[in-house]
Amino acid sequence: MRRYHHLGIPTSVPREGEEYLPELKLYVSGYEASPYGVEWMRYVHNGAPIELMKFERPPAAGSP
């Protein structure tokens, strides 16, 4: 059985406390402060925001 870990939500809006992950070319924020494991993800390419992927629902991550 998998256990809920976090929920990644794409955004195009810069957020306070973002951390840049160069290997993934995205900024992440919010996970540590969220009681529900919400992580905001802002993607960039060559310094410019990229068009967000279209999801029917946000991707949820689990752990065994």
Write a concise keyword list for the protein shown above.
64 residues
Strand content: over 45%
Number of domains: 1
Number of DSSP strand runs: 6
Described by the principal axes of the CA atoms, the overall outline is globular
Radius of gyration: 12 Å
User: What is the succession of H and E elements?
Assistant: EEEEEE
Cα separation of the termini = 6 Å
Q: Indicate the structural class.
A: mainly beta
Average residue pLDDT: 79
- The residue ranges in which pLDDT falls below 50 over 5 or more consecutive positions are none
How does this structure look, described?
The structure is a single chain. The chain has 64 residues and is an all-beta fold. It has one domain. It has strands at residues 3-10, 19-21, 26-29, 38-45, 48-49, 60-63. The chain is globular and about 40 Å long.
Quick overview:
With 64 residues, the chain is mainly beta. The chain contains no helices and six strands.
Give the helices and strands, then pairings.
Elements: E1 3-10, E2 19-21, E3 26-29, E4 38-45, E5 48-49, E6 60-63
Parallel strand pairs: 1-4
Antiparallel strand pairs: 1-6, 2-3, 3-4, 4-5
